[in-house]
Design brief:
Elements: E1 8-11, E2 18-21, E3 31-33, E4 36-40, H1 44-51, E5 56-60, H2 65-75, E6 84-86, E7 92-96, E8 101-105, H3 109-112, E9 121-125, E10 138-140, H4 152-163
Parallel strand pairs: 1-5, 1-9, 5-6, 9-10
Antiparallel strand pairs: 2-4, 3-4, 7-8
Helix pairs in contact: 1-4
The structure holds magnesium ion (MG).
The site of magnesium ion has 7 residues, from loops.
Keywords: Hydrolase
InterPro entries: FCP1_dom, HAD-like_sf, HAD_sf, TIM50
Protein name: HAD family hydrolase
Length: 188
């Protein structure tokens, strides 16, 4: 077993690990939750199984708490444990005055109460506005909308291993992270 780092890796759900639709896509859904057809991002089970020995894992989605619980139950491989599984009730509702719309923000200050320092937290999201106040902690990935050739989780795995032993996640430039993964061994 590799050494586990002192880092907490928080993963978003929709368009990060899965894509949910209310009508079936041309590709077959992996499972259904209520009225939703759930498509898992390619490699999600392998990603979670391979990354869990290295990081403490959490899920934080701005979807309803029940939806989050059901989906996490369905996608979690054996032996993968979650330090937190959080849904909308842990998010902070914000108003975007330019767009005249509301959105949910994930404020990492709330995670500090679990005993993690901000320097130790990495949050993965496809929606920059949801991690607006976590700029130094966020790694943004391409949204997954059902492309069966998507390889984002393979790239992400390689990149995350380069952050594992960092002293302070917040001081590391993470923009353009994908171009920095090539020298490292991939998980497949
Ligand atoms: Mg998302």
């Amino acid at each position: 077993m590799p050494d586990k780092s002192d880092k907490l890796l928080i993963l978003d759900l929709d368009e990060t690990l899965i894509h949910a639709t209310t009508a079936p896509l041309t590709i077959t859904a992996d499972f259904q939750v209520d009225a939703f057809y759930i498509h898992q991002r390619p490699g999600v089970a392998r990603f979670l199984a391979n990354i869990s020995p290295h990081f403490t894992l959490g899920i934080w989605s701005s979807a309803s708490d029940e939806y989050v619980t059901d989906i996490v139950k369905a996608i979690t491989p054996p032996d993968v444990e979650w330090a937190l599984i959080w849904g909308r009730s842990r998010c902070t509702m914000k108003r975007d005055y330019t767009l005249d719309a509301y959105y949910f923000e994930k404020k990492l200050e709330k995670v500090k109460k679990k005993g993690f320092r901000l320097e130790q937290i990495i949050i993965i999201d496809d929606s920059p506005e949801k991690s607006r106040s976590n700029y130094g902690n966020a790694v943004y990935i391409e949204p997954f909308t059902g492309d069966s050739n998507d390889q984002e989780l393979t790239y992400l795995y390689d990149y995350l291993l380069t952050l594992k032993d960092a002293n302070n996640i917040r001081t590391i430039e993470k923009r353009g992270w994908r171009s920095r993964t090539w020298p490292y061994a991939t998980m497949h």
